[in-house]
Amino acid sequence: MTTQIEMPKLVELRNVTKAYGPLTQRPQVVLEHINFTVRQHEFVSIVGPSGCGKSTLLRIMIGLTKPEDGDVYYHDKKIGGICEAMSMVFQTFALFPWLNVIGNVELGLEGKPFSKEEKRKRVLDVIKVIGLEGYEEAYPRELSGGMKQRVGLARAMVSEPEILLMDEPFSALDPLTSTHLREEVLHLWADPTLPPEAVVMVTHNVEEAVYMADRIIVLTSRPGTIAKEFHIDLPRPRDTRSPELYKLVDEITGFIV
Fold first, then answer.
1. Of 257, 251, 175, 237, which Cα lies nearest the Cα of 206?
2. How many other C-beta atoms lie within 10 A of the C-beta of residue 220?
3. 15: alpha, beta or left, given left = phi > 0 and alpha = psi -120 to 50?
4. Tell me, what's the pLDDT at 1?
5. DSSP of 92-158, one letter per residue?
6. Average pLDDT, the chain
7. Residue 163 per-residue DSSP state
């Protein structure tokens, strides 16, 4: 009998609650009593109905939004501001139209203690890894949706984050481009020589979550609470047409109400 080794904790959310408006004056509660842990080498996906607080949860994790109650811990230390060990990929690309690819990617190193030469080397290295070589001088208006999201991914990866947060990163892309980018993200995560150590992805697409994640957290409708966690034990690489995958998709979809 083999014993499964539990990997070290990277991030832990303890009793996190988020509300808009004073707690004493009938606030609009978005998230309530959220508790979960993200461990090393783990790919976690968060699913749930629209408006349940999935994106807000990512912003709380990285420190962009402060919860009304509860705390986020990184390596068992409470996060008091933006966590420099995390980076985020946004759904809407969030590129600056007046900057070329190099300029947009370099924003991921804003405020980092690197020389100009070191920043440029890091930017060019990640551009090569993400598949943007040859587009260094291109501006967002000259790029397809898939290439724009590659720029967003490169910007998030250039600081070599330990944890990559992704907020519906493929939802604005066509199906073929989405498929290619999913595979590339999985390749980056699985490569021990490259960051990140863990990925947390918000998605509306349950099939995408089952295909990519080790664990899926299902949130209820607002206020978002954890309805159930699913551990995905399907071997990798996964077959999107397998009966086992579809069975899990159906089961998880049944919890989203």
1. 251
2. 18
3. left
4. 40
5. T----TTS-HHHHHHGGGTT-S--HHHHHHHHHHHHHHHT-TT-TT--GGGS-HHHHHHHHHHHHHT
6. 92
7. E
Sheet holding 69-74, edge to edge: 28-39, 9-20, 69-74, 77-78
**CB under 8 Å to 220, separation ≥6 — which residues?**
48, 49, 52, 226, 227, 257
Q: 22-51 in b/e burial notation, b at 16+ Cβ within 10 A?
A: eeeeeeebbbbebebebbeebbbbbbbeee
Q: Are 235 and 201 in contact (CB under 8 A)?
A: no
Q: How far apart are CA 130 and CA 133, in angstroms?
A: 8
When pLDDT is averaged across residues 177-185 and rounded to a whole number, the result is 92
Q: What is the pLDDT of residue 23?
A: 56
Beta strands in the chain (DSSP E): 9-20, 28-39, 43-47, 69-74, 77-78, 86-89, 163-167, 198-202, 215-219, 226-231
Q: How confident is the model at residue 2 (pLDDT cuts 50, 70, 90)?
A: very low
pLDDT of residue 138: 97
Residues 182, 122: Cα–Cα separation, whole Å: 23
Whether the pTM exceeds 0.90: the reply is yes
| One-letter amino acid of 81 | G
In the block, tokens 């230390």 appear at 77
Helical axes 175-190 vs 145-157, angle rounded to 10°: 20
Q: Give dist(CA 163, CA 12) in Å, integer.
A: 12
